[in-house]
Amino acid sequence: MRKIILILFLSISFLNLFSQQDSVLKNFKFRNSNYRAITMNIGGGSNFSNTELVSGSNKNHNSSGSAGASYYANKSTDRILFNMSGGLYGSFSAGRSKNSSDDDKNRNLSFAPNFSILNKWFSRKFFTELGADMSAQSYNSKSTDISPLSEQKNKRNNQSLAIIAGIGKGRLENITDMQNALWLNKGLEKEGRLSRTLSAGELNGLGRAITAANNTRVLDARKRTQFILETIDGYFQQNGLINKTDIKYFSNLNDIVFFAFNEPRLSGTETFIRLRPAITNFSDNNSRQPADEKTGSRATSWSALLSMGVSKYVPMNLKHQNNYGASLRLYYFSNHSNEKFYTSGILINEFDFNPELRQAGVALFFQHAIYPNTRTIISFRLDSETGYQDVGDESGFFGIASLTGSLNYFISYRTRFTCNLGAAYQNNIYSIYNSTNHLTLLPETVQIFANAGLEVSL
């Protein structure tokens, strides 16, 4: 583990000294006044079957439905970077299965709201940030056996809240639009549709035009497509950059704007101190009749993560990107959980758990991404963390390291080849086990994995 950390640290230092950055990509600033989006969905279904057997008929029927709505808002100016998202999702299902010996009914109902907000305020080279993540889940189920009569109920609730507060220096800019502007410039230049070679300022203007086109709200999907094409074409026309607007010109424009497949790409350096306290509540109640048995679980956990470090995202050129960083992490976790078992209203057993976990460690990461064209991505990433931890009467060093590689290769507009492979190692790691937050010591593990496949859209 120590050798892996040392190799990673030396690799990052070497790259920082000798890396050359693409100035056009590096200097691009993603800016939009206020982008908002609302998504709603609703669905349902039902089925029925009747199977005739020697012993009699077997009938099954069930129905289900779901509905959801989500909201997203984004704002990026020189002074503010704001992101907010939220949603509410619900589902319901009911069914019945009946044959000569059994008659069972079941009902399930669930709700899951969530909300996330993060705001950064920039002053010269420094920033402060404040945000929150909130989520909840409520699940109720009931299963009834008509013959013989019995009933089981389950009620489960989970709520969590985390606060994010930090200060730092620098800013990470989203340069995906500038990347696509460079691809578009390259395609038009190859087809001979540009009236002249674009300057760095004109390329930057093209990137801003793509940002404006993609971040203006137009409800009608057809009108939105038209607006995006007209906005980018307008920039070329107004600045006299196009000498011929034919099918080759618009096919390049359409290809880059609507079919480029690239993950969000960042540029810049951020030095930060960040605190993330969190609280989680969990309850799970089960009952069974006519046995008159009940079980109940309650758990409340508190945690806090203090991280101090630096992240650097370096666009080497249009096709290559290096990302790396290091941080000191201090983590505390405390949990109180209680389990009770009743029979005929009498408490039979009760268990209390009060685990505490304290960790101090150093985390490093390095990623190299390759963009050979607008639709293919190759990525290699190395992550590691090592440190010292204390869990009750046990203490000692822990370590995690993973090396992963991925390929998303464009074959056609409907077909892609994907591949993932890697290796991972962990030693003396505690897992926060499911919603009750029990701490479980995982065994020392070495894992090697690989998978590949085709994605076909019909």
Number of strands: 18
Q: What's the rounded overall pLDDT mean? A: 88
What is the N-to-C order of secondary-structure elements (H for helix, E for strand)?
HHEEEEEEEHHHHEEEEEEEEEEE
What is the approximate shape? Answer: globular
Name the beta content range.
Answer: over 45%
Radius of gyration: 28 Å
* Number of discrete helical segments: 6
Q: Helical percent range? A: 10-25%
How would you classify the helix and strand content by structural class? alpha+beta
Q: Largest sheet, if any?
A: 16 strands, antiparallel
Q: Report, as a whole number of angstroms, the end-to-end distance.
A: 46 Å
Low-confidence stretches: 17-21
Please, could you describe this protein's structure?
The protein contains six helices and 18 strands. It is α+β, with helices and mostly antiparallel strands and 458 residues long. Among the domains are: 176-259; 272-458, no CATH class. Helix 4 (200-214) runs antiparallel to helix 5 (221-238). Residues 17-21 have low confidence and may be disordered.
